[in-house]
Amino acid sequence: MEQEVIIATLNEGKVKEFKQLFGSKNWSVKSLRDFPEVEEVVEDGQTFAENAKKKAEALSNRLGKMVIADDSGLIVDALDGRPGIYSARYAGEEKDDKANIDKVLNELADLPSEDRTARFFCAMAVARPNEETLIYEGTCEGRITMEVIGENGFGYDPIFFIPELQKTMAELSPVQKNERSHRAKAIQLVFTHEHEWS
């Protein structure tokens, strides 16, 4: 029987990635877009894990089903870890990818490549009614470019350079991205530990 997984997000880019990642397992993926009556949860936690857990549990309790939520973002060493948990709204409340990218590039304007180390981080929560929520984490190491490069992906992908591939995340195909992104690594842990929550 085909299993259903509900992802606690409205972000179209994330929904697309989750559908590709879960497609190999023949799971059907639904998102908050499939439940317009459910309000989006305010992410006011102090960590990625807190935010992911809060979103997953709120939706799981509301729907009475298993829900997976991720909270992910960009951590830049030279910016003391910013934008971090504020990645989606770094330049303002309206979640503007271009404005967020411009802000990061402006803040790093005077730094040489070797000082622009960064990582994408993802905390993924699996929540089920009346069960303990499980958290899985994934990271992807890289550097921030001097300019936007690449057309694929979303968010900070066009300025996140992966040294071993000599490409930004936005230059990768969806298949390549799903082999090494922070979200893909967290999802792989979810799959690996399926016996813990299925």
Automatic annotation (TrEMBL):
<feature type="active site" description="Proton acceptor">
    <location>
        <position position="71"/>
    </location>
</feature>
<dbReference type="GO" id="GO:0009146">
    <property type="term" value="P:purine nucleoside triphosphate catabolic process"/>
</dbReference>
<dbReference type="GO" id="GO:0036220">
    <property type="term" value="F:ITP diphosphatase activity"/>
</dbReference>
<dbReference type="GO" id="GO:0009117">
    <property type="term" value="P:nucleotide metabolic process"/>
</dbReference>
<feature type="binding site">
    <location>
        <begin position="154"/>
        <end position="157"/>
    </location>
    <ligand>
        <name>substrate</name>
    </ligand>
</feature>
<keyword id="KW-0546">Nucleotide metabolism</keyword>
<feature type="binding site">
    <location>
        <begin position="182"/>
        <end position="183"/>
    </location>
    <ligand>
        <name>substrate</name>
    </ligand>
</feature>
<dbReference type="GO" id="GO:0000166">
    <property type="term" value="F:nucleotide binding"/>
</dbReference>
<dbReference type="InterPro" id="IPR002637">
    <property type="entry name" value="RdgB/HAM1"/>
</dbReference>
<comment type="subunit">
    <text>Homodimer.</text>
</comment>
<dbReference type="InterPro" id="IPR029001">
    <property type="entry name" value="ITPase-like_fam"/>
</dbReference>
<dbReference type="InterPro" id="IPR020922">
    <property type="entry name" value="dITP/XTP_pyrophosphatase"/>
</dbReference>
<comment type="similarity">
    <text>Belongs to the HAM1 NTPase family.</text>
</comment>
<protein>
    <recommendedName>
        <fullName>dITP/XTP pyrophosphatase</fullName>
        <ecNumber>3.6.1.66</ecNumber>
    </recommendedName>
</protein>
<feature type="binding site">
    <location>
        <position position="71"/>
    </location>
    <ligand>
        <name>Mg(2+)</name>
    </ligand>
</feature>
<feature type="binding site">
    <location>
        <position position="72"/>
    </location>
    <ligand>
        <name>substrate</name>
    </ligand>
</feature>
<dbReference type="GO" id="GO:0005829">
    <property type="term" value="C:cytosol"/>
</dbReference>
<dbReference type="GO" id="GO:0017111">
    <property type="term" value="F:ribonucleoside triphosphate phosphatase activity"/>
</dbReference>
<feature type="binding site">
    <location>
        <position position="177"/>
    </location>
    <ligand>
        <name>substrate</name>
    </ligand>
</feature>
<dbReference type="GO" id="GO:0046872">
    <property type="term" value="F:metal ion binding"/>
</dbReference>
<dbReference type="Pfam" id="PF01725">
    <property type="entry name" value="Ham1p_like"/>
</dbReference>
<keyword id="KW-0547">Nucleotide-binding</keyword>
<dbReference type="GO" id="GO:0036222">
    <property type="term" value="F:XTP diphosphatase activity"/>
</dbReference>
<keyword id="KW-0378">Hydrolase</keyword>
<dbReference type="GO" id="GO:0035870">
    <property type="term" value="F:dITP diphosphatase activity"/>
</dbReference>
<keyword id="KW-0460">Magnesium</keyword>
<comment type="function">
    <text>Pyrophosphatase that catalyzes the hydrolysis of nucleoside triphosphates to their monophosphate derivatives, with a high preference for the non-canonical purine nucleotides XTP (xanthosine triphosphate), dITP (deoxyinosine triphosphate) and ITP. Seems to function as a house-cleaning enzyme that removes non-canonical purine nucleotides from the nucleotide pool, thus preventing their incorporation into DNA/RNA and avoiding chromosomal lesions.</text>
</comment>
<feature type="binding site">
    <location>
        <begin position="9"/>
        <end position="14"/>
    </location>
    <ligand>
        <name>substrate</name>
    </ligand>
</feature>
<keyword id="KW-0479">Metal-binding</keyword>
